[in-house]
Design goal:
- The complex is a heterodimer of chains A (115) and B (110).
- Chain A is mainly beta and 115 residues long.
- Chain A is 0% helix and 50% strand.
- Chain A is globular.
- The termini of chain A are far apart.
- Chain B has 110 residues and is an all-beta fold.
- In chain B, strand 5 and strand 6 (61-64) form a beta hairpin.
- Chain B is globular.
- Classes of the chains: A mainly beta (115), B mainly beta (110).
- The A-B interface holds A 4, 33, 35, 42-45, 48, 55-56, 91, 93, 98-101, 103-109 and B 32, 34, 36, 38, 42-46, 49, 51, 87, 91-93, 95-102.
Chain lengths: 115, 110
């Protein structure tokens, strides 16, 4: 069964450093998403991406965050200058259509720890 | 705001059916109801979705009330592997991002 893969599974970084979280969505999918989950809290939407541009972003997704689809397979989330409060599980997801009437496939997540 | 209400936790016995309720009293006519679940230390996983009619798939059934203000996810025979947090999510007709609430933590006893 096709799956969304994320690397690395765990990333430790120092406060102020840049990190790039990588995702390989399912190959025929057109919509891509990043969500995050702080330990013990809800899963929160960060950003959606379609047709090579951001279609929607949340208040969390400020200027420190950016997304990119550098080639036909990867989808990345960059945090420019990490803060302690960015420590969380980051989930990438993809779907072939808009999430209203299709299922989203999530990756296993990257645990980001900012020290 | 998830705009759905679910019990914080439920318990079930293995091999028995489980009915997980969700209230979405302010739903509009074009909003879909989706259910996802999250097993421990894993990403969310799609379970089922519907608009007006009851839906069945290999994982579960979704019963949607006639007035659409509530729905129930039905696991026909719970297994230990079904222990997870179950999220009822209302998807608005505007882009369709998933807005997760706290969900229902389902525990399954052998």
């Amino acid at each position: 069964e096709p799956e969304v893969t994320q690397t690395p599974s765990h990333q430790v970084t120092q406060m102020g450093q840049e990190v790039i979280l990588r995702c390989v969505p399912i190959s025929n999918h057109l919509y891509f998403y990043w969500y995050r989950q702080i330990l013990g809290q809800k899963v929160e939407f960060l950003v959606s991406f379609y047709n090579n541009e951001i279609s929607e972003k949340s208040e969390i997704f400020d200027d420190q965050f950016s997304v990119e689809r550098p080639d036909g397979s990867n989808f990345t989330l960059k945090i420019r200058s990490t803060k302690l409060e960015d420590s969380a599980m980051y989930f990438c997801a993809s779907s072939w259509g808009e999430q209203m009437n299709t299922e989203a496939f999530f990756g296993q997540g990257t645990r980001l720890t900012v020290v | 705001d998830a705009k759905t209400t679910q019990p914080n936790s439920m318990e079930s016995n293995e091999e028995e059916p489980v009915h997980l309720p969700c209230n979405h009293s302010t739903i509009s006519g074009t909003d879909y109801i989706h259910w996802y679940r999250q097993l421990p230390s894993q990403g969310p996983e799609y379970v089922i979705h519907g608009l007006t009619s009851n839906v069945n798939n290999r994982m579960a059934s979704l019963a949607i009330a006639e007035d659409r203000k509530s729905s129930t996810l039905i696991l026909h025979r719970a297994t230990l592997r079904d222990a997870a947090v179950y999220y009822c999510i209302r998807i608005y007709n505007q882009g369709g991002k998933l807005i997760f609430g706290q969900g229902t933590e389902l525990s399954v006893k052998p």
